[in-house]
Amino acid sequence: MGEESINFDELVLEHKDKVFNLCYRFLGNYEEADDCAQETFVKVYRSLKGFRRESSVSTWIYRIAVNTCKNRVASAQYRRSRNMVRLDEPKETDDGARPVDIGDEKLSPAAEAGRRQTGELIQEAIDSLPRDQRSVVILRDVEGLSYEEVAEATGLNLGTVKSKLARARQELREKLKGLV
Amino acid sequence: MDNKDKRDMLPEDEYLKQMSSLPKVKAPDDFLQKVRARIERRPLRERIIDALFVPFRIKIPLEVAAVTATLLLVMSSFDEIRPSKQLASVPKSDVEEAVVGKADDYKYQVYANKGRDEEKSEVILDKIESGTAPAVQAAPAATEGLKMKKVEYKESRLCEREASRGFLRADALPAIKGYIESSQGVITHIESDKNSGKTLYIDAEIPAASYESFKKKIEDPAVSRNIRVEPILKDPPQGSNIIQIRIFMI
């Protein structure tokens, strides 16, 4: 691969968790998120030469990830898989079942169970959002990107980002009222 | 977890707190290896396209050259197997050059077809020497059934044959003339040897429908063993109803 592979490997190692988390929150499924995240970095690899550094690398990778997730949500295959897979289905490994998210060692088992349930409820609420609202709320409220970075990653202008974010938050707050 | 008033919307600060504290889902440990494998495992379609066309600056010209060479080969083969449409013919210029400039050594005839439409035709013959008759070609099939139509002929279509050596007997001329007239034909020319005055041959025109019977009569051994009748032209034009013949001694 040459010199590009060194930079590319560094990119992957530096951004894989952020991208994976974004994909998971967008798609709500671990397997789909894994596939989508891999696809994102394949696109990053192929587009690396054409990257003109008009935005930060992180924002650029986020943008590719968001578009990949949107395309995946629109695909028929994804819709079929969503009807079959539960959000809380663990990813199995050779060592046994493994929880989808990271547990907090400081919490008691009951609290951990409660936290996990809250996360599932929130994820279900996020899944119910339209794609554009979903992407802005994940990037802003989950990943912590600035409004400008969200605008670059989604390709929307700043005003649209804020309006979509406001509507998304309102919907989530209504859906989550009394549940969390 | 405390229950909240369901009539209220989740407070924004609580909402933001909940959202930011969502557990972070990490990528698997072998994520980089899987990405690399995926990059190398490109779709078959893309690999075929790359194998055929990439790099463009090298492969496209080569492929264009290969297609062009194949087309040329096919076209050249097609031309070879296609039946030739060219027919052998004596260029008119060759015949004319044989007589140009040596009028003294050549006998040539210019005679008027005073038949139906008084067209003029010109016959340029090969060099005529004493005692020899000009060459004529073998007769083609009879053109019976053709309409009565005057046709002009060209020098390049002159028949050629080994020259005859005989003279037509003077007492045979009236009989020959009678045969011609009885076949509704006309004598167009009588060629004689310039030294002896003896008749070398007679040119005539007779209707195509009468040609066969006329030829049979003239060449009847009872009439003469040595007289022959043949058309002047190798292949008369289609639709012609008159045959120009030459009567000569062999």
**What is the count of DSSP helices of chain B, taking H or I runs of 4+ residues?**
7
Strand order of the largest sheet of chain A: 1-2
Low-confidence stretches of chain A: 89-103
Q: Percent helix among the residues of chain B?
A: 25-40%
Q: Care to count the β-strands of chain B?
A: 6
Account of the protein in words:
The complex is a heterodimer of chains A (180) and B (250). With 180 residues, chain A is mainly α. Chain A has helices at 3-27, 30-47, 57-74, 76-84, 109-127, 131-142, 147-154, 158-176; strands at residues 91-93, 96-98. Helices cover 71% and strands 3% of the residues of chain A. In chain A, helix 6 (131-142) runs antiparallel to helix 7 (147-154) and helix 6 (131-142) packs across helix 8 (158-176). Chain A is globular, with a radius of gyration of 17 Å. Chain B contains 7 helices and 6 strands. Chain B has helices at 12-20, 31-40, 44-53, 56-81, 92-99, 173-182, 208-218, and strands spanning 109-112, 120-123, 186-192, 199-207, 227-231, 242-249. The longest helix of chain B is centred in the first third of the chain and has 26 residues, at 56-81. Chain B is rod-shaped. The model of chain B is unreliable at 1-6 and 93-164 (pLDDT under 50). Classes of the chains: A mainly alpha (180), B alpha+beta (250). At the A-B interface, helix 1, helix 2, helix 5, helix 6 and helix 8 of A face helix 1 and helix 2 of B.
